[in-house]
């Protein structure tokens, strides 16, 4: 029984997080005004168009932000947390307003966490490609995604020996937020889900 629970937990979390990541990538690519002609963008569109396009009639875009993708990512994270709770042995009261609010907040924290993972991967990818393959067609996408976070730091942190260390600073900050803040916040929020007496 414990093995089945672990397997279900693994499948639910990984499938849901993969779909959340796809929707967030779509959201951030559009926000950064990245061309969707790149194969990576085509891949993201192919896997998300089936649900994003029909719902776009109901949830319109807010300027350059693809609100539909963001809302769907939030709903997917919310459903993931509900499913994960349903397979636990504890009798949670999911219909309570406090429980629903806690699950919605946990879903939002999940989006923040996934966004930080995406930024982490983009910065690492950009740093590696700048050394190994600076003319790689993926570089403009990575630059568009990382520049808003690196540019402010570059005003205060000059290159050392001709090497830009701002990606390292951002990676350290991301690790700090993920390990110290997000992990504890998720636990505190999910403790607010009411348990049946």
TrEMBL record:
Keywords: Membrane, Transmembrane, Transmembrane helix
Keyword Transmembrane helix applies: yes
InterPro entries for the chain: CCB3/YggT
Pfam (any one): CCB3_YggT
Residues that span the membrane, as ranges: 7-29, 35-53, 65-84, 156-182
A GO cellular component entry from the record: membrane
Protein name, entry field: YggT family protein
Protein species of origin: Formivibrio citricus
């Amino acid at each position: 029984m414990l093995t089945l629970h672990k397997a279900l937990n693994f499948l639910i979390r990984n499938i849901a997080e993969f779909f959340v990541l796809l929707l967030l990538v779509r959201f951030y690519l559009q926000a950064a005004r990245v061309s969707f002609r790149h194969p990576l963008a085509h891949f993201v569109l192919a896997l998300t168009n089936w649900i994003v396009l029909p719902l776009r009639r109901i949830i319109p875009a807010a300027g350059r932000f693809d609100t539909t993708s963001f809302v769907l990512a939030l709903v997917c994270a919310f459903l993931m947390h509900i499913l994960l709770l349903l397979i636990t042995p504890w009798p949670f009261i999911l219909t309570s307003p406090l429980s629903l609010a806690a699950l919605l907040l946990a879903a939002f924290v999940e989006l923040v966490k996934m966004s930080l993972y995406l930024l982490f991967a983009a910065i690492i990818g950009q740093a590696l490609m700048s050394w190994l393959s600076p003319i790689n067609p993926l570089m403009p996408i990575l630059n568009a995604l990382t520049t808003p976070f690196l540019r402010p730091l570059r005003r205060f942190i000059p290159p050392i020996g001709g090497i830009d260390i701002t990606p390292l600073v951002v990676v350290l900050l991301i690790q700090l937020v993920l390990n110290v803040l997000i992990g504890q916040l998720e636990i505190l929020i999910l403790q607010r889900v009411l348990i049946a007496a």
